[in-house]
Each structure stands twice: as C-alpha cells, then as structure tokens.
Amino acid sequence: MPLNRKYIPIVVTILLFIVMFTAGSFRYTGFFSLQVLMNLLVDNAFLLITAVGMSFVILSGGIDLSVGSVIALSTMVSASLVQQQGWPPAVVIPLVLLMGAVFGTAMGAIIHYFSIQPFIVTLAGMFLARGLCYVISIDTITIDNTFYTAMAQTRIPLPGGSFLSISAVIAILVVAVAIFTAHYTRFGRNVYALGGSEQSALLMGLPVARTKVLVYTLSGLCSALAGVVFTFYMLSGYGLHAVGFELDTIAAVVIGGTLLTGGVGYVLGTFFGVLIQGVIQTIISFEGTLSSWWTKIVIGLLLFIFILLQRVLSSRRLTLKE
Amino acid sequence: MSTQQPILQMTRIHKRFPGVKALTDVSLRLFPGEVHALMGENGAGKSTLIKVLTGVYSIDEGLVEMEGTAISMRSPQESQAAGISTVYQEVNLCPNLTVAENIFIGREPRRFGCIQWKQMNLRAAELLRERMNLHIDVTLPLQSYSVAVQQLVAIARALNISAKVLILDEPTSSLDQNEVDQLFRIMRKLQQEGLSILFVTHFLDQMYEISDRVTILRGGELVGEYMANELSRLDLVLKMIGKELHLLDELPTLAAQDKNSLGDELLRAEGLGRRGGIEPFDLAIRKGEVVGLAGLLGSGRTEAARLLFGADKPDFGQVILPSTGGGVHSPREAIGRRIAFCSENRKTEGIIGDLTVRENIILALQAKDGMFKTIPRKRQEELAGEYIRMLNINPPSPDQLIKNLSGGNQQKVLLARWLLTEPELFILDEPTRGIDIGAKAEIQKLVLTLSRQGMSFLFISSELEEVLRVSDRIAILRDRRKVKEISEKDMSQQQIMQAIAGG
C-alpha cells in the first residue's frame, strides 16, 4: 500500500484518460479507432514537447512562463530566415534550437546566481521573447519551403491504416529520452533532489547550480523544438502564435500528477496529462455543438480536482516505523 | 592516544560576520577512532565551527589539516572529498527520494551513464543492515520513516562517502531514549572501526556516556580540551557557562515553594481529540498553575497543544473557558481569549528572520490591536528595551536582525512577543529545545515567576527534569493517549518514567 502511494496521482491520471477515451468511444461512432488515438499525438506534439521540458522545471521546484513566447519566437525566426532570407532548414533548425537553449540558460543563470524567483524571471523572459517576435515582423510570415511542407504532410503509416506525423514521432522520442533522463541519469535524479530540498541537495554535495541552470536550458530547448514542430504544423511564423500556451503546459504537467512544489512526479504522467487535454478537445469536436471553450472549463475543473488530490495525498503522509 | 597523530587538526581559526566575531582563535584536534564531544552554550560558536568544517563558511584566518596536510574547504563538495561527512541536526536529506537514493545520490552506481537501480537498492539495504542494523525497505521514500531512521540513513550516506571524520550535529535532539541507545551502539561500532566522530550535543549525560574527549567553546572562543572521564560535571557546566551556576542550584527548590494559592479553573478540555493526532482526553488548567505535559516524542504532546490553541480542528470534544463560557475554535479566537502559544518549530513557525528584534517582539501585540492602530515607535522601543532587559536578551540591541541571534535568544524574543499580549494561559511547546543551560534556567525561572503572578502555563518538554522542576501537575501521554495525571506529592522521575513506559 505505501508503495502504491507515490504512484497514486499517475495512476489516477492514466485511469482518467482511459475512462474519458472509453466514454467517448461509447458515445460517438467512429471515436474508437487507432487514428483518433494517434491524432491526440499528432495534434498535440508541440504541447507534449513543451510539457516535457516544463516537467523538469516543475520537478526542480521552479516554473517557466516563457515557453509560449519562445515557441512564437522560434516560429518567427524560422519563417523569417527560411522564407525571407532563404536560408536552408538544415541551418535554421539547429540555430533555432540553440537560440532556445541559450535563452533558457540565461534565465536559469539569473534565477540561480541572483536568487530571484523563477516566476518573475521567466515572466520577463515571456515578454522579451514575445516582443522580439514583432521586431522581426508584425504580420504572419507564411512558409512554402518544400522541406517544411514535406514535414507537415508526410504521414508515417501504421498497421491498421492509421498514421503518425513526423512531429508526433519527434514528440514520442522526446518523451522516451526524457523518461530515461529523469530516472536513469544523475542529472535527472539531481532535479528530483533539488525539488525535494534545495538546501539538502547543496549540503549533500550535489551540483545544485549546474542542475538548476540546465533545467531551464532544457526547457528552453524543448520550447524551441516545440516551436519548430509548431512551424511544421502551422507552416507560418507569427507573433501571436501560442499565446497563453505556458498555462496549457503547466496544466498538462499538473494533471499529469506532478507536484507544483517540486520533487514529485513523472514524465509519463505529463504524457498522459497532454493526452487528457487532447481527448477533451476531441470529445468536444465530436459533440459538434459545443464551443471549444468547454475545453477550458473541463481543464479548469480537472486542475482543481488534481490540486485537491495532491493536497490530500501530501497532508496524509503516513509515518512508518521500521 | 596523545602520542598519535591527529587525523584532523584545526589551528587558530578565526571567523567574522558583519558585526559579530563568530570564532576567535579556536583550535580543535580529532584523533583516529575517538568520539570527541563539542560542547558549549548557544552562541558559543559550535554551529559556526561545524559549518567551517563542512565548507559552508570559509575561514578568515587559520589552518585546517587533514592527516598532516593542509586542506582548503570552500564548498561542501571539497569538504566531503577530504573525507569529512556531516549529519546535521535537522536531517538534510531529500524526503521525496527513496532511502536508497538518499544514500547514493551523487555517487549512484552506473553503467554506461545509466543508473543501476537494482544494484543501488541492494547495496543500500546491505549497508543499512550491516552497519546500521536497520532492516527497512529502501525503495520507499525517506519521508515514510521516522526522524530516527532518517538520521541513521543520513549517517549511512556519510559513511558511504568513505568518511574518515563523521560530524554529528545534535543528532539526539529529536530522538527518544531507545533511538538514542541505538544510535550510540552504532557510534561505538563505527569508532571501533577506526572512524573519528565529532559529536555536538547539549546533553551532559550523553556526552559522558559516549565521548572520549571534549572540546568546550564559549562565546566563540576556545575554553579548552579535556578528557571526558577527568572532567567533573560541575567543572563541565562551569566551563560552558562560565557563570550563573547558582541559577541551576536554585531551581529545584523553586517549584516546591507555596503554590497553594491556585485560582479558579481557567480552561478545560472535555473529551478533546483528533483522529491521527491524539485520542480524546480531559485536561483542566487553573489560574496560576503550571501543567506539565510529558511523554516521548510522537506521543501526542504537540497535537494536544495545537488542539487547545485551536490551531487544529478537533474531531471530538471541545475546549471550554469556564470564566466566559465560550470555547476556542481558532488561533485568532484563542489569542482574543488571552491564550498564547509558542510553537516548537522556532524557525518555521515563530521568528521572522529578516525583521529586527524589536519588530519581532511587537508583532503579536500589533496583531492584537489591529493594523490601523500602529504602536508609536517610541512606545515600541520602550517595550522592546524592557523585555530585552527582563529576559536578558543578548546582544541587547533592539535593531539587530533576529536571524543573527543564537537559538536561545531567539526563543526569548518569542517569549517576549507573547508576554507583551499579557496572556492568561501560555502554552510553551519545547521552549528550551536546542538552547543552552543558562538560557534554559532563565526560561524556567521566568515560568515560575510569572505563574506566581497568576499566569497559567502548559509546559511541554521532552526533558523530564525540566517538566518536574516547573510543573504543579503533570499530564503524561503515551502513544497518542493521555495515560496519567500526577500532582505534586507523586511527582518523581521514576513515577513519570513508569507511566511513560507503560509499566
């Protein structure tokens, strides 16, 4: 029973996803198919990638509000360089990823070395990145580069006639690498330790500074990658892309069972957190008559439930004696 | 032993903080295979010395040598690399990680950069079994275990870093007697294996029980280094406090003085209880009475106090104040009815580190008056000055930030804060924990003096002697249940011990 305890939030998340998917399957014809399931990944690839980065940040006890803006900036830089300057994607994409990582590193360094709350530093980062988009252009830049259109249109066939997009495959790879990183590398475990108690981590001789900064580097990198994937998806760069997206990301992580106070949670939980958001949207689109704002309402309610669940679980911390 | 080379030698260490000389010319020698006690009052410089040794603070002057070679310690990593491991008073591990991880994190067994969980869990279980005699599931989060177990895990971690010197900073302050015995058994075992242990403690008995030698500090200076078995208790205390010995002698007689003039019943708990906290109990406190609450750690002492103060909602029963007929349902209401509660967690629930002594003292009074009736600055200064004098707060400067004060003095500031509100009932939860003998005696004396002036106290302490000294009546808790209530004529350590042990 105590062993189950730390898995309760993630089990609840997975069950919730199964229940919602099952409910959808019974209610709507055509819902129960592999393609609907795959579409959850196809349509939410960029959310998944961003949420993975955010999971590490939240696990370390921080927060990153800049992710949405970094995505927008990435689409903007990609579009501008590829479309207007004619740079090859093979140069642009690594450059954009590097930009995201550097941006994250800078924020992480400010957070750590000046001991400023992550909330305010990444808020500043959010405004900065969003503002930079408009320096490039105030209008949408549409991309018709063949590489980008190919990436957008390529379907990877799966057995049973369904398919995945390249973006979805990238997202799945990111999740797999992240799960490995979180559980089987020192960096991953240090992130958990940092989220458990920064003071203790320091006194245990762990590399707190490096870990903390790297967490934001990782989040910046993930956001930039999500921006690249988002560019494949939208085939445009625009300063108003992914507005308020940081909040969707945080919601996905929390619904995935990660504690906002840090130290407790799983990347796999985040994966299902994203799928739950996706399944809500799918149900609403199948319903047809409902406004898409119902997605927000349901997510809002779910968030409340999950925060309460976490509260209940952490306040009833059981004490075992040997 | 004296012919041996010391494994660790600190020579003429100086450390200054802005406005404070924390360490002046302090030296320390540690020989292989000895348990060396480090003793001193609060503010004597023990914590600073430990932090210097562990690399948290850097020294201004002086030399630290490990096995004859000078070492520099600018960070906890460097200190660990030199073979010095520390287990702190508040267990500094990560509660959310598993026991095994807490032992190995930073040095996890890896293959191709991939952490070998199976191997780590096996090794952790083996380490705890072989060296700590502890049989627990190492895959559970650390927070599922008691503080005592966490403490042992912390030691296991320290040992695993192949330490030559182990520093135990007040390891026994939150352990019960059995747990202390277990810890001591392990310390002796480690000592035989050749490990040098620096043992920081406030408990005289424990020092004599386990230590070979003792270094005493006072006011940031070295008093001396002695063989434990050649130093009498009286000498030890004299060297530690340097003065005011009469305070200790005087105390046992104080409680015995006439306290027949107890007034009416002030507060009564009827069948008060909370699930998972404490089973329903009755308790009455009269005006001018000091009621002691004795029991082991985890016996429900704090839980009982929090219920009485309205800090937790009871599942059963109620608190009644016979004089007004009302009850207590929230801390706010309790304060309104002139009940004060000084929590055991001084750091997290009491002091506000970045405010000055004066501001900390004024806090509760200001809260009582409401935010719109600011207490004039001049009046604030008068009050602060008065209490600083009365409680002998050191340094006697009202504008010092409270975080710069020693534990004992912080506690006094907290007492002053509540005393200012002129409470009728003052609940003191472990008011003397982690503070030195001199301050302890002063606080005990204060309780007795005020109770004779008509203030009632609920006095919670894990030190039996202390409870006996100040209390008129003692309620004894065991396993989250009130088991006995004894008053004056039956009050003896033996009686209480029996009740606590369940004999």
Kindly list the characteristics that best describe this protein.
heterodimer, A: 322 residues, mainly alpha, ABC transporter involved in vitamin B12 uptake, BtuC, two-stranded antiparallel ribbon, 4 strands, globular, disordered C terminus, B: 503 residues, alpha/beta, Rossmann fold, 3 domains, 6-stranded mixed beta sheet, 18 helices
Which helices and strands, and how do they pair?
The complex is a heterodimer of chains A (322) and B (503).
Chain A: H1 2-5, H2 8-27, H3 34-59, H4 67-84, H5 89-113, H6 118-136, E1 141-142, H7 146-153, E2 155-157, E3 163-165, H8 166-184, H9 186-196, H10 198-203, H11 208-234, E4 236-237, H12 245-255, H13 267-287, H14 293-315
Chain B: E1 8-17, E2 20-30, E3 35-39, H1 46-53, E4 61-66, E5 69-70, H2 76-81, E6 84-87, H3 99-104, E7 110-111, E8 114-115, H4 117-132, H5 147-160, E9 165-169, H6 177-192, E10 196-200, H7 204-210, E11 213-218, E12 221-227, H8 233-241, H9 245-256, E13 265-274, E14 278-286, E15 290-294, H10 301-309, E16 316-320, H11 331-336, E17 339-342, H12 346-350, H13 357-369, H14 377-390, H15 407-420, E18 425-429, H16 437-452, E19 456-460, H17 464-470, E20 473-478, E21 481-487, H18 493-501
Parallel strand pairs in B: 3-10, 3-11, 6-9, 9-10, 15-19, 15-20, 17-18, 18-19
Antiparallel strand pairs in B: 1-2, 1-4, 4-5, 7-8, 11-12, 13-14, 13-16, 20-21
